[in-house]
C-alpha cells in the first residue's frame, strides 16, 4: 500500500522478497543518499521502507533489514510506524517506530547471516535473537507481540473512539484474529507501548482474519476481514466470502461528511479529517492555493489541537519563499513534536541548510528533538556537522538505546570526524557508561583502540565484555588489527 504523508510525499515498502526498485523505464533508482535501491547490503538489504514525491523524485530509503513488513503508516508529525513478521514459528512479531535511516536487524549487517548463525553476545531469547538486538547499529523494537501474521496498520487521529486510541497505532494481526491498538508514551528518544485489543475473534470466531484497518471520514474504524479458517502459506480455504466491520461507539450511525475543497474554507475543514483520502484532497487544494491559503493555515496552526497544528505547519513551510520563516516558528514552539516537524521541514526544503536550525536545538531539553537533530546530520560530512554531533553526544544517557542508535546512524558516514570532535570535548573523561556506549556504537577508525582499553579496564564489569568484543566485528582494517594484537599485551 502507498500512503500519503503530511509532507505531501508517498510512503511505501517491500518485504524481504523484494529485490530492487526501478523507475518506469526499468532503470535502477539511485536514492538521495547516492545508493542504488537494491537488496545487496550496500548498504540496504531485506525489507525496506521508502519515501518519495508523487512523481517519484527525491526518492529516499528510510529503513531497511526488515523481514516481512506488510504495510507502513505515517502520522501527522511525519513519524513512521510499521509491523514486521518473523520467520514463522519464532514468536518474534514486532512493531517498529521506524527511525529514519535505521537498520532493523533481520540479517547480519555486513555478513547477511541469519539469526541462527552463532555470533558473540547473542541474545538469550529467540524472539529477540531473531532481530540481532544486541548488535551495535540495530534499532530497538517498540514491541514484541509474539506469534502472529501481521497485516494492515494505521494511526488513529480521530476523536470518535475513546481517548486511549487517539493518535495511536492500530494494527491487524490475522494469526491470532485480533485488531489491536498500541498506546505509546515517550521514553527517552524513543517510545514504550502497551497492547489494547479492539476486536478479538480468538475465543469465538477464529475465521476472523483482519487484513486492513483505516479511519473513515466520520472517525469510525473500518476493518477488512478476508474470513478464512487458516492463515499463512497462501493456502486460503474460503475463496468466496469476506466481511467488513465498522468499529464505533454504541448507537453510532455512520455518516460521511460532504467534502468540498474548491474553496479554502472547505479545504481547511477537509484537512482536519481523520480520513487519509480526504486529507489528500485537502492538502493538494491548499498547496495549490499557495500564499492565498496562508492566513487560513496560520489560523489552523493557532489551534489547541497538536495534530491540526502539525498538518498546518507542514503546508505553511512549503508556501513559496516562506520556508525559513515557518521553520523558525516551528523550532521555537513549546510542543517538542512541533519542533520535530520543524527539523523535518528543514531537511525537505531546497535551498535550506538544516544545520542553521539544528544548531539552535542541539541542547534542547527533549531527547526526541535531539534525536531528530542527529538524524538530520546523517548525510552531512562537514566539520560543522561533526561538531554538532559531538554536542549531541555529550548529552547521551547510557539508558537510552534509541538516542544511542540515532547518534550512531548520524555518525556512520562521517565517523572519524564525529568521534574526534567528541574526544576533543570529553577529554580524559571518556570512560563512563555513556562514553563506553558511544565507543561500542561508533565506527571510527580510532574506536577499536578504545574498545581494547575498555576490555583491559579492571573497573569494567566482566559480564559486559562480550558486548565490546562483538563491537569489534563491525570494524575492519589495520587499526582494528593493531587493536586486537594489543589485547594480547596484558
Helices, by number, come to 16
Helicity, as a percent range: 25-40%
The chain-level mean pLDDT equals 96
Sheet-strand content, in percent, reads: 15-25%
Tell me the overall shape: globular
Strand order, sheet with most strands: 1-2-3-4-8
Termini Cα gap: 57 Å
Which radius of gyration do the C-alpha atoms yield? Answer: 23 Å
Low-confidence stretches: none
- Counted beta strands: 18
Class computed from helices, strands and strand pairing? alpha+beta
Assembly type of the shown chains? Answer: single chain
The largest sheet, given as strand count, sense and whether it forms a barrel, is: 5 strands, mixed
Q: Which secondary structure elements does this structure contain, and how are they paired or packed?
A:
Blueprint: E1 3-4, E2 10-14, E3 47-52, E4 60-66, E5 72-74, E6 80-84, E7 93-97, E8 102-103, H1 126-129, E9 143-146, E10 150-156, E11 168-173, E12 178-182, E13 184-187, E14 190-193, E15 196-200, E16 210-215, E17 221-225, E18 243-247, H2 264-271, H3 276-289, H4 294-301, H5 306-317, H6 323-331, H7 336-348, H8 355-358, H9 367-376, H10 383-393, H11 401-411, H12 415-426, H13 433-441, H14 447-456, H15 465-471, H16 478-487
Helix pairs in contact: 2-3, 4-5, 5-7, 6-7, 7-9, 9-11, 10-11, 10-12, 14-15, 14-16
